[in-house]
Amino acid sequence: MDTSVNIALVGICYNSYGHLESLFNSLAAAYARLPSIKFTFVIVDNSTQHLQPAPDYSQAAFPVHYIKSENVGYFPGFQIGLEALGPRSTYDAIIISNVDLIVSDDFFKNLSQQLSEADSRTGMLAPSIICPSRGGDLNPKVMVRPTRRWLKKNIFIFRHIALFRLYRWLSDLKIAKKKSQAPAGTQLYSPHGSFMIFTSAYLESAARLDYNQFLFGEEDFVAEECRLNGLTVRYRPEIVIHDSDHGSTSKEALSFIAREHVKSLNYILKTYHGDSEKV
To answer: Is 177 helix (H, G, I), strand (E, B) or coil?
Structure first.
């Protein structure tokens, strides 16, 4: 295991300062167990409820950059955080994360191990994201590339709130009833978007990170960029994350969430499935 790895995590905060504190504390605890690594934590604060005073991380054992932003959305916030990191080629991994989760104490140890063992075509690592309220692991997210017809079917569902509620309930049921964990190293189509790990293979390739949709669809976006650039997404349950279940998005109206899903899926259809007609 190479303990000289350089890792950065960009956490996107939206009115979730309690969760942010818990995430920071978990990162500090994990870092204390492997302080030989280089680690940078970037916080992009999209909150509309301002925390006064701003968080003070001057005593942290690793560099912390706090950036107050307008509410630009999840992946656009990630792009703001990336600007604070400098050249991507200097990192062994860059992570985008919601702040409503915590990492395990052995997070950096296991992540460093998996990065050292990953082959040159592994573009992303999908960790085990344990969500008690949904009864299981949120990864693997999607195993097989969705068809155009499947995406259009989902757009139809998201346009009808009653169907959308049923869809969400069935999704949670599917997670809770998952009979067994997928084998470590399983290749999948897309990882769960709440915590995504980009390896140096992705960062040094032509794969894009400029996804400008406000919310949702980022999982399909990075999956398609991996596919187009000959990269794979690998499930690595050795890396364990604990999710408190949508601490930010759960505060939004279901109608808003549904509309954002429709926008993102229309973008994916147009960009990667050659479908220029909005559904």
So the answer is: coil
Strand-pair partners of 187? 234
C-alpha–C-alpha distance, residues 194 and 243, integer Å: 9
- The Cβ of residue 219 has, within 10 Å, a number of other Cβ atoms equal to 21
Closest by CA position to 74, among listed 39, 57, 99, 94: 99
Q: Find the radius of gyration of the CA atoms of the chain.
A: 18
Encoded amino acid at 183, one letter: P
The dotted CATH code for 6-272 is: 3.90.550.10
104-136 pLDDT, tens digit each: 999 999 999 999 999 999 999 999 999 987 778
Domain ranges of the chain: 6-272
Per-residue pLDDT reduced to its tens digit, 160-207? 999 999 998 988 788 777 656 799 999 999 999 999 999 999 999 999
Alpha helices (runs of H) in the chain, residue ranges in sequence order: 17-32, 74-85, 107-117, 148-158, 161-176, 200-203, 218-228, 254-272
Q: What is the amino acid identity at position 275?
A: D
For the range 249-256, what are the long-range contacts, defined as Cβ-Cβ under 8 Å and sequence gap of 24 or more?
249/215, 251/15, 254/161, 254/164, 254/165, 255/161
pLDDT band at 238 (very low <50, low <70, confident <90, very high): very high
